[in-house]
């Protein structure tokens, strides 16, 4: 798979995690210079990195950054039952181990480290931050999953039943995943690309996966005030997958001194799969935020900014 260009060096590597699973990793770096800072992708449920994140990575590399991805167990080109998450903590352990191994390389010591979490990947970013609160220099969160909206939250009895069934048949694939690409991606070309991507899972979600996502969401919702790292949270106003009001709640409750919320009226869940002009706005906001924090050693102003575009 050729992702190379005269500006971008692309490399792939399979690694083995602590549980013996083979995990796919990839990286995009500037061809002719050292990256000025490191960005680590945390992808969403049923997604992958190598194809889906190619455009994002190319834009970030051209802005001077090194970009690193990993396909979670059971996702993309990594081993494991498709989309099966037996324990969300495994994802955190895998990402933490891989990302820190990159950060601790001699050539990377002293470089700033940023997490880039998309949807469920937002939950991954939050939990990586919780695991090592002072390690990460910030996070970019696109429509993060940090709370189940109240009208979607199952009744406690349903949650108890789900937990009991999971104990007996955790890999039972009964939860349907409707084809919502037409309501997630606004750009017709991007829809075609998503549908033709062989590494994106489009089947039913295993019960255990659904239970893990619910439990993680409830946990993060209760502990939004524990978020202390700088972050930029971006959300489409017409997102039907994750609730934009939850990103506003994150902005209000997080203890971070440096926090920014950008709401894009009329945009959908996949902010980088909008129509071209809107995509350019999103990337401009991301790169501007990074540029203000990637190299500067002085602390960013403690004033919070609540930006609505």
From TrEMBL:
GO molecular function annotations of the record: lipase activity
InterPro entries: AB_hydrolase_fold, Hydrolase_4, MAG_DAG_Lipase
GO cellular component annotations of the record: membrane
Every Serine aminopeptidase S33 domain range: 34-274
PANTHER family: PHOSPHOLIPASE-RELATED (PTHR11614)
Official protein name in the record: Serine aminopeptidase S33 domain-containing protein
């Amino acid at each position: 798979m050729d992702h190379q260009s005269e500006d971008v060096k692309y490399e792939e590597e399979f690694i083995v995690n602590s549980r013996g699973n083979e995990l796919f990793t990839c990286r995009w770096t500037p061809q002719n210079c050292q990256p000025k800072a490191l960005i680590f992708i945390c992808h969403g449920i049923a997604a992958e990195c190598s194809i889906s994140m190619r455009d994002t990575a190319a834009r970030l590399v051209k802005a001077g950054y090194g970009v690193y991805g990993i396909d979670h167990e059971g996702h993309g080109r990594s081993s494991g039952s498709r989309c099966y998450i037996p324990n969300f903590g495994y994802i955190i352990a895998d990402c933490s181990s891989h990302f820190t191994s990159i950060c601790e390389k001699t050539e990377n010591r002293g470089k700033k480290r940023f997490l880039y979490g998309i949807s469920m990947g937002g939950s991954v970013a939050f939990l990586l931050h919780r695991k090592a609160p002072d390690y990460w220099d910030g996070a970019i969160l696109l429509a993060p999953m940090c709370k189940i909206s109240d009208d979607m939250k199952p009744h406690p009895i349903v949650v108890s039943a789900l937990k009991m069934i999971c104990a007996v048949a955790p890999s039972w694939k009964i939860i349907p995943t409707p084809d919502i690409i037409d309501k997630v991606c606004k750009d017709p070309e991007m829809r075609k690309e998503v549908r033709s991507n062989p590494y994106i899972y489009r089947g039913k979600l295993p019960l255990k996966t659904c239970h893990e996502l619910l439990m993680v969401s409830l946990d993060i919702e209760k502990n939004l005030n524990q978020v202390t790292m700088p972050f930029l949270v971006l959300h489409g106003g017409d997102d039907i997958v994750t609730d934009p009001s939850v990103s506003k709640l994150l902005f209000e409750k997080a203890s971070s001194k440096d926090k920014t919320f950008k709401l894009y009226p009329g945009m959908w869940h996949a902010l980088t799969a909008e129509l071209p002009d809107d995509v350019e706005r999103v990337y401009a906001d991301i790169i501007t935020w990074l540029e203000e924090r990637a190299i500067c050693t002085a602390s960013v102003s403690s004033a919070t900014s609540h930006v609505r575009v």
